[in-house]
Design a protein that fits this description.
The chain contains 23 helices and eight strands. By secondary structure, it is α+β, with helices and mostly antiparallel strands.
Length: 583
């Protein structure tokens, strides 16, 4: 695992001073007719100025936090407060510690922001990292990148467990590289009409000289296309089609891969959230999680020591004189699990789940609960917030007086200028719905990015079966995948005997888990637009369609325009008829 600080915010005045000095060096020390003695004197002057600047300047985001923390209590303007903090960094750090840890104003730390490059982290550990609801992540996609088979070996595995893990992952990787070219050929054949007379020479390139390097492939395709006369498209257009089709093959072949496969993530996180993530990670049962937390701590504690303080008990006690209470992070989750198990054992488990069929996406999604009369609640909020009537009057109109047809027309008028890219009014957050979805690891990797809804996953459970892509069935490798998944599940249960948490690393992208999803209507629109769109990956598209379909049965009025972006204007025309307006 490799973690690098890619950037962090510092005061703009410091940046401007650095730019000024660099510009001075460029302008004054460039080619000129200056005499040697004058040149030497100028170098000394510039050197002295730079040395003084570096001596008195701390490149830290702490001064931003400290100056903003003083806004409410100090008479000076914000620029003046920033200047004071820049000139007195030690005092600014003491101020941060007092305001954040003594007074409890933790939001001050949110003004400091860090960027990280994280390489060689397992996909399983990525799930833990990306639990941060208010952080930003960009992950290297398995859809666009040909994997080279690199994977994380958990430190928990020793002896025969280690051998079993390595053997299983090797078989999974071999299956990926076997399925990928076959799936690519299948998708090429499915889209043959898009290539015309270029199909055969392009297939020859794909079957003989195709490499994981996209630049090399571009050259190979251009070379093969030069030999063809009367091409119907430009070489670059063929390359775009091939890349898209190649992505389909990669994303389906990846279902054979384990969650131990390495990933790369760009992460942006403020100091308040970073501190909490570090604390969570360092108390994890998994060595990889703890290592990530330690690396994040070591990289940031020197840059912003007054903001990253709750992560080390000794440093916290030295700085505040108080013990750092961490019992909840250490034992909270285990206490909940233990209490849950005791309650289940006391009353027994219902047996109606046994034998449930999960082959079709509609069997994998269930509606659990909703806000009472979700349409009416949203209409209630819209009426009150967009008028001067009282809450009780708005409630009376929405729930009792307005007819169903009145409500439909009201929402149509409210949303008449909505486009597929516009956010719905915040009043649509009033109504929520809860679903249970059984989804693959591959699907969950995408669903977890919808961090504003409440996403509560169970542990992965091989008894829930596997999700197998249709292309794998079409190339007649379904049984090979089933056999691989069965062997993987067997390895999982064996590894679980000694390492119940680390055993998850061996499970594949096809293995499933139950996820409890609670979302408001506004967020459901976002899910529909992104995940029901034709460009969405098929697995999450299938699950999302079922969620939205169920949601529309519970809130048919306010959910009337929820769909994929590509279908938005067709649906809008259906709802509005000739009145439809395209923004």
């Amino acid at each position: 695992m490799e973690v690098k600080v890619a950037g962090y915010n510092i005061d703009a005045e410091i940046i401007e001073e650095v730019k000024r000095q660099l510009t001075q060096i460029r302008n004054k020390l460039g080619p000129s007719d200056m005499q040697p003695e004058d040149h030497d004197e100028l170098v000394k002057t510039i050197w002295s100025e730079a040395a003084l600047f570096l001596e008195k300047t701390e490149f830290t985001p702490e001064t931003i936090s400290a100056s903003y923390a003083r806004i409410s209590r100090y008479p000076q303007s914000i620029p003046e407060l920033r200047k004071i903090a820049r000139e007195e960094v030690k005092k600014a750090r003491r101020s941060n510690k007092a305001i954040i840890f003594d007074m409890g104003h933790f939001s001050v730390a949110e003004h400091a922001v860090f960027n990280f490059d994280i390489l060689g982290l397992s996909r399983f550990a990525v799930e833990e990292l990306e639990k941060g609801r208010l952080d930003s992540y960009t992950e290297k996609s398995q859809r666009y990148i040909t994997l080279d088979g690199d994977f994380v070996t958990p430190k928990e595995f020793k002896g025969s467990d280690l051998e079993l893990y390595l053997e299983t992952v090797e078989k999974q990787n071999k299956m990926y590289f076997k399925a990928y070219p076959k799936a690519r050929t299948y998708f090429m054949e499915q889209n043959k009409e898009q290539f015309g007379n270029a199909f055969d020479p392009i297939m020859e390139v794909l079957n003989t000289t195709w490499t994981p390097d996209p630049l090399t492939n571009s050259k190979l395709i251009r070379k093969s296309l030069k030999q063809i006369s009367g091409l119907e498209k430009k070489p670059s257009e063929y390359k775009k089609i091939i890349d898209r089709i190649d992505g389909f093959a990669k994303e389906d072949a990846r279902y054979a891969l384990s969650m131990g496969i390495e990933a790369q993530i760009g992460c942006t996180i403020n100091a308040r959230n970073l501190e909490y993530r570090i604390r969570q990670l360092k108390h994890s049962k998994l060595a990889e999680h703890r290592e990530l937390g330690q690396k994040l701590f070591e990289l940031t504690k020197e840059i912003a020591p007054s903001l990253i303080l709750l992560t080390d008990p000794e440093e916290f006690k030295e700085a505040t004189g108080r013990e750092l209470k961490e019992d909840w992070l250490k034992q909270g989750k285990e206490n909940i699990k233990k209490a849950t198990q005791e309650l289940i054992e006391k009353y027994g488990l219902p047996g109606h789940e046994q034998g449930r069929k999960l082959k079709d996406p509609k069997d994998c999604v269930r509606f659990i609960e909703r806000t009472t009369r979700p349409d009416d609640l949203i209409i209630d909020a819209l009426i009150q917030i967009n008028s001067n009537v009282s809450c009780s009057d708005a409630h009376e109109l929405a729930y009792r007086q307005a007819t169903y047809d009145d409500k439909v027309e009201y929402i149509k008028k409210c949303l008449q200028n909505l486009s597929e890219f516009d956010r719905l009014p915040r009043e649509f957050e009033e109504s929520t719905m809860t679903f249970e979805a059984i989804m693959s690891s591959s699907c969950f990797a995408q669903m977890k990015r919808h961090r504003m809804m409440t996403l509560l996953p169970q542990d992965y459970d091989p008894s829930l079966g596997y999700t197998i892509p249709e292309s794998i069935k079409a190339i007649r490798m379904e049984q090979e995948f089933i056999d691989l998944f069965a062997e993987t599940s067997k390895a999982f249960y064996k590894l679980k005997e000694n390492n119940p948490d680390a055993a998850n690393y061996v499970l594949t992208n096809a293995h499933r888990r139950r996820v409890r999803i609670t979302s408001n209507v506004r967020e459901l629109y976002h899910i529909a637009r992104l995940r029901e769109d034709a460009h969405a990956q098929w697995d999450i598209q299938n699950i999302s369609k079922e969620i939205i379909k169920l949601a529309k049965t519970k809130a048919p009025i306010t959910m009337m325009l929820a769909c994929g972006k590509d279908k938005f204007y067709d649906l809008k025309k259906e709802v509005y008829g000739n009145e439809s307006k395209q923004s």
